[in-house]
Specification:
The protein is of the alpha+beta class. Helix content is about 50%, strand content about 10%. Strand 1 and strand 2 form a beta hairpin. Keywords: Membrane, Transmembrane, Transmembrane helix.
Length: about 375
């Protein structure tokens, strides 16, 4: 009998005793009536517990010959995978894959061998992830991660049909050294593309000036008139300058039909050839004037008049291109010294840096790289 049953039986006995005592006092029972009541109370005390006791379960544990078996622990159906190596679309750049793999058992096919659910589930998830990552560029690791999150969030059967498998909490990263290398390669590619475009732009400008604008005097005049349609008389006055410039750009003499348009050389300048031995060097080009002795002296000469005729300001980048073209032509015919001051005056690449003794050599080398044909 349990404690609850005993409590109920005691309560009923006390209640019945009180009823009998109150009834006997109210009805003034004789002595034999109290004896009968006591006997009835004793019978009730013996019968009530039996009447309130629950029915006995014949299959309860106390009637079995074996003890109770412990409850089996719940089956584990998830496992964490960390830093699994997966290939990318670039050789030698691998992703690091991490995720929580979850699976649900299916009815195993007939005749299938025993297997580890966790191993089968992880292998199936990694294979699904590999099919995606091997098509992704390592620079796009965040995009590949979002694709994996969507693809692996669906429960799909493994190749053997034994489990339904999915993955959550997916992360996909690259190692720090690989990230740094890719960042440097990207910077180099951008700089190389920019330099290539700038070089091609410079080549196009030189080809345009040397092979088109300054091809001959007539072409130079037409080009000048196209930019200055209302200055026909000025174009006629500058025919000699245009003839000299086109002749120098193409490494040839000024045509005879334009010779009378060429300005007369200043007194003291030689017409042809280098200065004799023992004499001070003099300019032998008609673009030079007395007083233009170096890059620091701003010459007011025929070249400035040409720039003015072409509508090109002295500080404009086109002035430097024309000066380099003229200088290259003079170098090929051995008359570099005659127009050295022109190049120093109008080519921004020859500006000297104060305090550096080697500045002219460095500038000369840089100018050669930018202006060398075919670079």
């Amino acid at each position: 009998m349990s404690s609850g049953h005993k409590t109920v039986a005691g309560f009923c006995t006390v209640l019945l005793s009180l009823v009998l005592v109150i009834t006997g006092l109210a009805m003034r029972w004789p002595a034999w009536g109290w004896g009968t009541a006591a006997a009835l109370l004793a019978v009730a005390v013996a019968v009530v517990p039996r009447l309130t006791a629950p029915a006995v379960d014949p299959l309860s544990a106390e009637f079995t010959t074996e003890p109770d078996r412990p409850t089996d622990p719940p089956e584990r159906r998830e496992q964490r995978v960390t830093d699994a190596v997966l290939p990318s679309a670039a050789e030698d750049y691998d992703f690091r894959f991490s995720a929580t793999v979850r699976w649900c058992p299916q009815e195993a096919p007939k005749g299938s061998a025993p297997f580890s659910p966790s191993g089968v589930a992880i292998g199936a998830v990694l294979e699904r992830a590999r099919e995606i990552t091997e098509t992704c560029r390592p620079q796009r690791s965040s995009l590949a991660q979002h694709r994996l999150v969507g693809e692996l969030a669906v429960m799909l059967p493994d190749p053997g049909g034994r489990l339904l498998v999915m993955a959550e909490e997916v992360t996909l990263t690259l190692t720090e050294p690989d990230t740094a290398r890719l960042r440097k390669l990207s910077t180099v590619r951008k700089d190389e593309a920019l330099w290539s475009h700038e070089r091609r732009y410079e080549q196009d400008r030189r080809d345009y000036l040397g092979k088109d604008v300054l091809q001959d005097t007539g072409t130079a005049v037409v080009w000048w008139l196209a930019k200055n349609e209302d200055q026909i008389h000025k174009a006629v006055g500058d025919l000699g300058v245009l003839a000299q410039l086109s002749a120098a750009a193409n490494d040839r003499d000024v045509p005879e039909r334009y010779a009378h348009w060429v300005p007369a050389q200043p007194e003291g300048h030689q017409a042809h050839g280098p200065a004799p031995d023992g004499d001070a060097p003099h300019s032998n080009h008609p673009l030079e004037v007395p007083g233009a002795v170096g890059p620091g002296t701003p010459p007011v000469n025929a070249f400035e008049r040409l720039l003015d005729a072409l509508g090109v300001p002295a500080g404009h980048e086109d002035a430097g291109v024309l000066a380099r073209a003229l200088h290259e032509g003079a170098v090929q015919v051995g008359r570099e010294g005659a127009i050295e001051s022109v190049r120093h005056r109008f080519d921004p690449a020859t500006v000297e840096v104060p305090g550096l003794d080697t500045a002219p050599e460095v500038q000369e080398e840089g100018s050669g790289q930018e202006g060398r044909p075919g670079s």
